[in-house]
Amino acid sequence: MKKIAFALGLAGLAAAIALVARAGLQAVLQALAGAGWPLLWLVPLHIAPLALDAAGWRLLLAPRDAGQRARWPVLLAVATVREAVNRLLPVAGVGGELVGIRIVTRRGLQATQVAASVVTEVVLTLLSLVLFAALGLGLLAAWTRGSAAIDQIFLGILVALPVPVAGLWLISEGRLVAWIERFATMLSRGGEQPAWLASMPLFEAELSALARRRGRLALATMLQLAGMIVGAAEVWLSLRLLGHPVGVVAAVIVESVVMFVRNLAFAVPAGLGAQEAGIVLVCSALGLDPQLAIGLALAKRMREVLFGVPALLGWHLWESVGGAPDLLARSAKESRD
Length: 337
Prior knowledge:
This protein is 79% helix and 0% strand. The chain is mainly alpha-helical. The chain has one domain.
């Protein structure tokens, strides 16, 4: 699996380099130099969409957190780590969720309850992503009056739509455990089933309890969709600083297409190449120069690194400090034995 991720990462990096070279590296660097230090405002600006995502997660987790151990500020901090892991590490877009479950569980919540909230949130995120892409497609159709790029995006939406719908159906009908058990049996080739399947009925019960809270699911979806729309402010500000200001509608179109394309290429580490290609594709449909599109792509990459690296370092520090008591306890026990 690591070899596949490495190969996909190299291919994506090669594609990104080819796009930059085709646009003209010198022209792109001149545009970024012209924008200057104000591009750093993209870093704090990114807190806004993450705050809305964390609010949606809090809605799902709140019924199982009577002790208020994972309030919204805590989940916001965890959300930054989740995103940083998914964006900057070769984990195929799912490692951040596992890290988030680990962090919140260590605050005293049950693992099955936290995992159920995260799995449900991921499914709702996929649904919100499809809705956001459909919004962007509608706006793009009105903007360009039809183009080949629209046909490609529409086909992608049709292909991706069954995924969140199937996820919601499995959760609401209580069939997720049966599906996972069949999948695990298939992988084990009739041998002994993995030990972790023993906890799956409790996990299924938590998912079913969440599925019955339809009001919370709907509100969490709306918060996630609002976060995606607010995230378009990054595109709006970047293009303004790069010397080509656009309206809110154009910014929403670009952000929706880029997010959709990147999530389709979840297996590619950091979405290398896919994100850049998505930006070039939608900017071309909007009549923006390739140099400007690559400048926007590099600005977004800069924000990802500057926002994500401190989150990863903070997570590493938290793991080191949090693991110290366990290490001391094990050492004391070994010395007594």
